[in-house]
Amino acid sequence: MKKIGITGGIGSGKTYISKVFTSLGIPVFNADVESKKLMTTSKILMELVKSEFGEGIYNNHNLNKEKLASIVFSDKIKLEKLNSLVHPIVKAEFEKWCTKQTSDYVIKEAAILFESKANIGLDAVICVSAPLELRIKRSMERDNSTEKEIKNRIENQISQEEKENLSDYIIVNDNKEMLLSQIIKLHKLLS
Hints:
Elements: E1 2-7, H1 14-23, E2 28-30, H2 31-41, H3 43-53, E3 58-59, E4 62-63, H4 65-72, H5 76-98, E5 105-109, E6 124-129, H6 132-143, H7 147-155, H8 160-166, E7 169-172, H9 179-190
Parallel strand pairs: 1-5, 1-6, 2-5, 6-7
Antiparallel strand pairs: 3-4
Helix pairs in contact: 2-3, 2-5, 3-5
């Protein structure tokens, strides 16, 4: 079974495209969703996060997401530290998940696939590409965030151009190119 990564900048449409692959019968592991889940279910990860960011980062088992976001999105070193705690546990969860799959290939969706080195061990990577202005607009609408907040998150990711250069395949999601034909072509290639 092939392991395929799918990434792209914030607001590029990774999750939407992953849902299309799911409708084609391809299992998708959303690393971002899983990492959020593990932050409140993995005792090991919770203890690591508390020791790094203080006991007050959790109230019982509830993560204070706003507090954590304000810390890590204003300090690149703290963000790297958080990622270094979370990603090995997410990677182990992905490997365990893969053993339960039976399709020709699976997809691992991750916004920071290259930044977290989650591309290591994958057979190929798909990059979802969209113009910056469109990505900002989509993200603001989806997350109810300000343009400044979205741009701060973008600054913590490698550039769209670099993601494309590191990827094996590119899906253009600019509201002009036909998406489904691009996805079907890749699906046939990977099956």
